[in-house]
User: Fold these one by one.
Assistant:
Number 1:
Amino acid sequence: MTKTHIISIATATLLSACSAAGSEVSFGGFFSNGYIKSSANNYLVDSEEGDFDFAEVGLNATWSPLDRTTVRGQVFAFEVGPYGNFDPLVDYLFVDYSVNPAFGFRLGRIKRSEGIYTDIQDIDVARTTVLLPTGMYDARYRDFSASVDGASLYGNFQAGNHSFEYTAYHGEIDLAKESGVAAYALGEIGRGGIQGANLTDISANTNSGAQLWWYTPLIGLRFGASYTYYDEFTFDVSGTLPHPLYGPLPLRIETIANAEQNRFSAEYFLGDWTFVSEYNTITIESSARNTVAGAPGDWEPSKGKGYSWYLSASRRFLDKFEAGLTFAEYVNNETRTSNPIDYQKDTQLSLRYNATDFWTLKAEFHMMDGTNRLFNQLGQNAGALDSKWNLIATKSTFSF
Amino acid sequence: MNAPIKSLVAAGIAFVSASMIHAAPAVVVNPENADSVDADILSAYLIGKRKFWESGGEVIIAVLKDDADANGALQQFTKMDDSRFKSHWQRLAFSGRGTMPKQFSDPAALLAFVKVNKGAIGLVTDTADLSGVKKVN
């Protein structure tokens, strides 16, 4: 079943249910706009100059037309520097049938469950920080990272004082040449020596995953583990290869990659305090072939493993304020950790003010070490990079 | 004890008694709702672990905002204060896993909502006029 079929079924179900039932439709939404300024380098946006191109808007609707059945959908648009461009996308649109609390399923464009923030990365009001931990949740990946076209199973059950919640999903994902994932892949492939690298094609096959949460008897404490598998990302990059005798030779690099990701999460709400930590590993197995001046070489396999983690503590005070401290580290390849291009570390101080029930203001300061998450797909970081740099981010969010 | 002192003591006792009386939480549902609700199930409804009644209808949660007694009831049944409760439901709602609870400033408006919505479950206090709804706690 293709993703088009799945979306069509979900839409048809929504429309037929609309005409058949009179149940109330609930709406919600949010709009946020931020500003990012860095002491050096361009991160996410044109941050060295200071940039307001950091915005997102979403409108969702929920409707229960039949017993145990809900239809949910959200339209979303975002802009993070050169990514997103406010092109509206169907963030999710699915039919949800709950057989009982222990078992239900969703069909359509569904949210991915992975760790604490993947399916709620847009929800500013659900966290203290403006930016989520570097490398693990990247705002530039928003167009593909949040949902898949497919199906999921979910449920929760109790075992004594322990409670468990599970989700398993499978579906297709979309990748665009202008996406953040494409930018990151281009940067990594370009490190092989290709000049004038240009991404001519990108695609992805399927994405499967499972998330399990364990709610411990200690109220407010939960642990999670997730597994994610990405099947067949393909990248086709063209450029030139310098040659001492013949000058630049045309070079094409074809890459096929599979990736698997494991994430372990802990979250603890203790009075006004919130403690959060996650550890993530990603293993990428790829096969690449270089074609120089029209002569194809052999497919060369390779394997790399990277990791990221963060630790965060935040506290509410004076009723409307929250302050947080986060340390995050991302390492692209565990065998290369000494060069700043291979990692990025972020020490982050955040302040949040809940101005009203529907309006939240945030500001934060980042001390950065490393440059791995600085993309240059569109020439944002063409010159030399500073490995030690600072950044401020602010955000204003309205939600209803 | 002379009269002025008696009056003063009586007033003091009345003041202390009044300050010790707390409104008890009342969990109410539509009178047509025949489901039985024990404490565990009630908690599961309020935190979104159960989204449908046994009869199949959608659970629609109704809460009071900026109400100290209602906040106490939330704490009792969900182990969350109103701020945490709102954040919890925003996580569910914006990720397509639940529907935001309806918020009311006035207990009478909340009770009127429960009276006309078969799937509604509301948190108020027993000082409100509960006629026309079914108290389940």
Note: The domain at 3-399 of chain A is CATH 2.40.160.10 (Porin).
Number 2:
Amino acid sequence: MTTTRSGGPRIGLFATCLVDLIRPSIGFAAAKLLEDAGCTVEVPPQTCCGQPAYNSGDRADAKAIARRTIEAFEPYDHVVAPSGSCSATMSKHYPELFAGDPAWEGRARAHAAKTHELVSFLVDVLSVTAVSAQWEGSATYHDSCSGLRELKVHAQPRNLLGGVAGLELREMAHPEVCCGFGGTFCVKYPDISNVMVGRKTDDIAATEADMVLAGDLGCLMNIAGKLKREGRRTEARHVAEVLAGMTDEPAIGEAER
Amino acid sequence: MVEITSPRFKANAREALADKDLQRALTKVPSGFIAKRAKAREKLPEFDALRDRARDIKNHTLAHLDLYLERFEAKVKENGGHVHWAADAAEAREIVLKICRDLDARTVTKGKTMISEEIGLNDYLEEQGIEPVETDLGEYIIQLRKEHPSHIIAPAIHVNRDQVEADFRRVHGHLPQDRDLTAPETLLGEARGILRDRFLKADVGITGANFLVAETGTSIIVTNEGNGDLTQTLPKAHVVLASIEKITPTLQDVSQNLRVLARSATGQDMSVYTTFSTGPRRADDPDGPGEYHVVLLDNGRSSMLGSEFEEMLRCIRCGACMNHCPVYHTVGGHAYGWVYPGPMGAVLTPSLIGVDKAGHLPNASTFCGRCEEVCPMRIPLPKMMRHWREREFERHLQPATQRWGIKGWAFFARRPALYRAASGIAMRLLGAMGRKRGRFASLPLAGGWTSHRDFPSPQGKTFQQQWAERKR
């Protein structure tokens, strides 16, 4: 691991396309959390991890996008993303995508080995045990599928949220059940997706928490969009925003104050 | 043959979502099966290690499938039984018909078998003047209703108690109309009484097989009702319908795989009955069938060997994948449009009836990964669904809008400079339009999203723009 002036690792922050386009404040929250933990953070030119193409069966485009991403992040000690699903695409599926490709398999494996989901990186790699943040109210945490099942992100966000001053964590029923987003699934099968997200917002509402948190913006846009459509008052935010103490921006789908 | 409605999966799903009885019945799936399996797993610390062993046993078997099938055939013959090889559904039906004809059979009792569904046996036998009688309670109920199973181990999970009572009153017309059928046990008792008579009249008994043992030429069924035992021991002949991948090398291997089967399926340590059948009745046996036949069905499975779908042949039909599937929970089994529903069906069905007909199935998944997480045979179901999507993409089978949507996105995602320029403009525009209210109630080209939920507005400038400005 190369070190920098600060002595910490040099991180290539992969913001994810959704954060880049829809909610940049999550990217800044991620950068703050990493910098507070002693890392140097850089943001090389980037687009998307390629997951939409990969999961749609378009391997050629998925590989082309992946090659761009691997090249862009080769200079860094770690690649960190505020998303379980994009991290899992890079850390679990890039090697599979380039299996048997002599020019790229090694590079894909190296990229995969140094890629981490943000909160698990903070806790498992940097051994962060507490953050200095405050948020007054109650919150419930939804486990996004890829983070939970492919990357085993479960206790880490809950542990860090436990240290946020003023925040009371309330578990919802079935936090591990999919919210119905599923990338392109939600527009390919909108009727089914709608029932799934409706069950999720019911479980969220039953906790009477002020806010729902998760580690993936895709799920959060789906959940927040449904909460708003149902006229519910529960806010939705990415867990990084709360952990970084950066909650001045309106919550997801919320009007400007 | 069961009518294939998989191509109209979307319409099936819409109908399922609007069906109040079905929706009420489906709530039983997550509330019952999931907790029971979790409890069974908790009680057995080596459960996950057993899953590894089960996977390894089946991988070994599939690598030597020809060898074990031939060994099984030789053993069955040695025991006085017959083995019939069926390349497809039509051959399997004809084999069964010939066995029935040779015995002048009029009535055939049946234990639960999904292969019978796969080859459309009941309709065929009826056309030939032979009456098939389902003896598993769930199968009996759906036979009365002229339906097909909506779940591979709980075929009538979509039916509620009131519907069963109405069906029994309609079909069992000879019983007193004022009888009390309010308690579930009374329904069970009535079915038992009716079926007892049919067991005694049957000429041929047909069962499936959970395992075929190469070492001994044994077929094994697991049931909770004991109907399988009466089906196979009382008639003149016992016919076993099994697909080729049911083969397992030894009794030792079977005893190991049985430990994961019931726990994954119903959360039981073992099913109530685990019945071993090895050949016809011997001279000193007190009972048993005079003839023992095994019909080995391929129906496309051998073409899965050596392909990216080979691992699907490890499946032992426990149903855990559909029990844990949030999509199955919303639409139930019939929406999938053929014999095998849920995640295992999403992978197997395209192999058996063609991805051109079953293309929706591997797409109707969020890849949430719960199926793979609970599969006792550790079958990578999402990965194989993705492989089907790749085949569809190659053959241009997906809707054009979907294809060009992905292609359009990829065009920009492959070109970072262009992507930054275009997204920078687009997000500033969208952000300016939506930021004040925070969301859009409708957006052009996003009807799939906004018909059911709002679309959160972008904040404005992209992260990459803002980051570059911050660093300046």
Note: The longest strand of chain A covers residues 134-141.
